[in-house]
Amino acid sequence: xxxxxxxxxxxxxxxxxxxxxxxxxxxxxxxxxxxxxxxxxxxxxxxxxxxxxxxxxxxxxxxxxxxxxxxxxxxxxxxxxxxxxxxxxxxxxxxxxxxxxxxxxxxxxxxxxxxxxxxxxxxxxxxxxxxxxxxxxxxxxxxxxxxxxxxxxxxxxxxxxxxxxxxxxxxxxxxxxxxxxxxxxxxxxxxxxxxxxxxxxxxxxxxxxxxxxxxxxxxxxxxxxxxxxxxxxxxxxxxxxxxxxxxxxxxxxxxxxxxxxxxxxxxxxxxxxxxxxxxxxxxxxxxxxxxxxxxxxxxxxxxxxxxxxxxxxxxxxxxxxxxxxxxxxxxxxxxxxxxxxxxxxxxxxxxxxxxxxxxxxxxxxxxxxxxxxxxxxxxxxxxxxxxxxxxxxxxxxxxxxxxxxxxxxxxxxxxxxxxxxxxxxxxxxxxxxxxxxxxxxxxxxxxxxxxxxxxxxxxxxxxxxxxxxxxxxxxxxxxxxxxxxxxxxxxxxxxxxxxxxxxxxxxxxxxxxxxxxxxxxxxxxxxxxxxxxxxxxxxxxxxxxxxxxxxxxxxxxxxxxxxxxxxxxxxxxxxxxxxxxxxxxxxxxxxxxxxxxxxxxxxxxxxxxxxxxxxxxxxxxxxxxxxxxxxxxxxxxxxxxxxxxxxxxxxxxxx
Length: 655
Hints:
Blueprint: H1 22-29, H2 33-46, H3 51-64, H4 70-84, H5 87-103, H6 107-121, H7 128-143, H8 147-163, H9 167-184, H10 187-202, H11 208-224, H12 228-244, H13 251-264, H14 268-282, H15 287-303, H16 307-319, H17 327-334, H18 338-349, H19 356-372, H20 376-393, H21 396-412, H22 416-433, H23 436-452, H24 456-473, H25 476-485, E1 492-503, H26 506-512, H27 516-536, E2 540-544, E3 549-553, H28 556-573, E4 578-590, E5 593-595, H29 597-608, E6 614-617, E7 629-635, E8 644-649
Parallel strand pairs: 4-6
Antiparallel strand pairs: 1-3, 1-4, 2-3, 4-5, 6-8, 7-8
Helix pairs in contact: 1-2, 2-3, 3-4, 4-5, 5-6, 5-7, 6-7, 7-8, 7-9, 8-9, 9-10, 9-11, 10-11, 11-12, 11-13, 12-13, 13-14, 13-15, 14-15, 15-16, 17-18, 17-19, 18-19, 19-20, 19-21, 20-21, 21-22, 21-23, 22-23, 23-24, 24-25, 27-28
């Protein structure tokens, strides 16, 4: 996240003398960025702007999304300040250019601008501009692992901000200290500083640029230590701020963070869309962040089973400066290149300069790969390194990952009982944080541990639950792997009508309702209502993921009837919308679970439905009378060669 806006008094326009450009400046005050950019751009074509006005033009271009023009405006402002003899402001702009060039991966150019800024600042008495230079230098030291210097420079920035009454500089210096302390492993103290900085942003004490800077840096810090609950909350705040302030420049950066949160929660399609759009938006003006976006895209596609597309995303991340690990090593393992996967992950985790958060991202994959390569003792070493980091950071996700890793090691050693205890702990912890995909992984491993202990019935129960969850998440590769594990049991070919429901925008709704207790009560009422309707129409609930159901019906008419009843109940009793998909097809039934292309198709039809819609395949309606339909269309479902004819079922009781 960038560290620059105007360095004076927290208001970038408060220092500007009134002149004929008042309209543009007033638009900036009102945060009407597109209008401000248009007015300033028109003025720039008809008159010579002062350096301060050119800097405002750069700010307006940034907020309005014209990132391709920002650097040229900044360079013009720098030259103008130099010509006017305003050394401090020239140094401020030079520091900002250095930051942007670093985002463009132009490291030598960035270093040159930082050197020029420092040389100019050395000619002047201390001022806020010295603090902004220290803030940028702190960021560079933090990225290079020089944590002591990063902390010292951040303290310098905070002190200068306090001394000169620049609240933006003071708070961002405070936050940078929090980042450095967390990287050093001093998590409690670091989080306190982050919370203080975030509270200032939430209270409206900072200018728009600094507010979003604080939000995004807090999200990044939470994400780095796998505190995805907090990261999700602050991501929602950042996106709300962008929408309220008509900002189009920074949502791309926030979407990179948001994508990882959605991946953690198992919302893979949403994560894929967020990461893909962020990567494309940021590729030109901030390739460093674009590299992070493409890496996230690779991880999501890997979970979706799209191996070729995952490799392409990792390749793009690598080209943009983001090391594609551990995702690329995991991909090699999945592709069957066990030797290559082990060699590459060993190189990654063997780098002694890595920060603790970076190690925490690598070590779970290292355990996976070492176990897959038949090296349980090496895996045990990685698991204990992860445990030490989890003990320092004490986040739920890291605790669950540690329990899961220890379970993998125990299972590889043939200790089914110890494996079961660890996998059960991982499942419970992940469930408490909404990590749907990881819960499915834990249930798969629980099944294997139970099978190792000789309890085949319990093993099948867990494996079937894992298969149903993977099917719902469209994690094709994982679903197929579990299906192979279930082949020991006798599967029966059946013809069923499958129904999938999903609350539209559940993440945003959970934030909007104001309290976790209120949201939990809403979900409980929703669940009770849907389960009662399924019972009324002889439906069987196969899986429930918190905000949606997977159910089956013997008769298509019952499924359609249930879908209509559900939409009417939601319309009358709840403040949110749901989408429903219905499809009749063949599948393999194993115990209480179902798998096969029919289930995949039903899940994808459900995902394609809009809010308040019952979307059904045409084949489901064959032989049914008195079903009013509309909006006939053809869908191309991922993983299916032939398109599927679908339509909407009318349900509104007011018709």
